[in-house]
């Protein structure tokens, strides 16, 4: 049995054959056949541009207007939905109220207007998020003792609503009313979302 030499040159692929152009007779025959055929499509195919080798008859014939290219449909990128809020676990809440788990930072919103309190709260939580803090205490206060219930504790009612907004949900995992030792109804434990 003979062995093939290891340094044999691999065979090269055969180059593709060059397409020949149609003669005038062939082109006329094809056009007469094409006129008799009913197209399957609603829109006619665009004719190929005449080659420069073709005779004067072909060049003088008007070409079909070129079909404008279909513009791609641009789909705007959708914003990812902010993660939902989750309540602070009973065990963690118990550890916070007993002092076994540390509160990393505190924010007191007493005496601020709603606009200022919103801005300060957002800045505080952004900083806590970037610093990698876990639990913060937000003190809203219980509101004035006198007056109707609608006038009392505006921040106490507003802060939980703000924390539920998408801009805050990217920073906050969840929140819950603080224990009496940390302010009770006038304060919130807020769990800050980790940086990814």
Describe the structure.
The protein has 196 residues and is α+β, with helices and mostly antiparallel strands. Helix content is 30%, strand content 11%. The protein has a domain at 90-192: Ribosomal Protein S8, Chain: A, domain 1 (2-Layer Sandwich), CATH 3.30.1370.110. The protein has helices at 24-36, 56-60, 90-98, 114-131, 154-163, 166-169; strands at residues 105-108, 135-139, 172-177, 187-192. The radius of gyration is 38 Å and the shape is elongated. The two termini are 66 Å apart. The mean pLDDT is 76.
- CATH topology category name of the domain at 90-192: Ribosomal Protein S8, Chain: A, domain 1
User: How does the major sheet shape up?
Assistant: 4 strands, mixed
Distance between the termini: 66 Å
The appropriate CATH architecture of the domain at 90-192 is 2-Layer Sandwich
Radius of gyration: 38 Å
Helicity level? 25-40%
Strand content: 5-15%
Q: Can you tag this structure with a few keywords?
A:
alpha+beta, Ribosomal Protein S8, Chain: A, domain 1, single chain, 196 residues
In short:
This protein is an alpha+beta fold and 196 residues long. The chain has six helices and four strands; from the N terminus they run αααβαβααββ.
Helix and strand layout, with pairings?
Blueprint (H helix, E strand, L loop, with lengths): L23 H13 L19 H5 L29 H9 L6 E4 L5 H18 L3 E5 L14 H10 L2 H4 L2 E6 L9 E6 L4
Parallel strand pairs: 1-2
Antiparallel strand pairs: 2-4, 3-4
């Amino acid at each position: 049995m003979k062995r093939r030499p290891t340094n044999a040159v691999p065979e090269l692929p055969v180059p593709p054959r060059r397409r020949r152009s149609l003669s005038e007779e062939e082109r006329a025959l094809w056009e007469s056949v094409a006129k008799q055929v009913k197209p399957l499509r609603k829109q006619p195919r665009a004719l190929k541009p005449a080659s420069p080798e073709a005779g004067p008859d072909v060049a003088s014939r008007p070409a079909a207007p070129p079909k404008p290219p279909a513009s791609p449909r641009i789909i705007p990128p959708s914003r990812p939905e902010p993660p939902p809020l989750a309540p602070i676990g009973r065990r963690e809440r118990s550890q916070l109220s007993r002092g076994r788990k540390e509160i990393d930072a505190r924010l007191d919103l007493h005496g601020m207007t709603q606009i200022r309190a919103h801005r300060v709260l957002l800045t505080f939580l952004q900083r806590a998020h970037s610093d990698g803090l876990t639990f913060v205490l937000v003190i809203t206060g219980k509101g004035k003792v006198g007056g109707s219930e609608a006038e009392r504790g505006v921040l106490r009612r507003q802060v939980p609503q703000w924390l539920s907004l998408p801009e805050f949900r990217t920073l906050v995992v969840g929140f819950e009313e603080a224990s009496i030792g940390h302010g009770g109804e006038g304060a919130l434990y807020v769990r800050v979302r980790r940086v990814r």
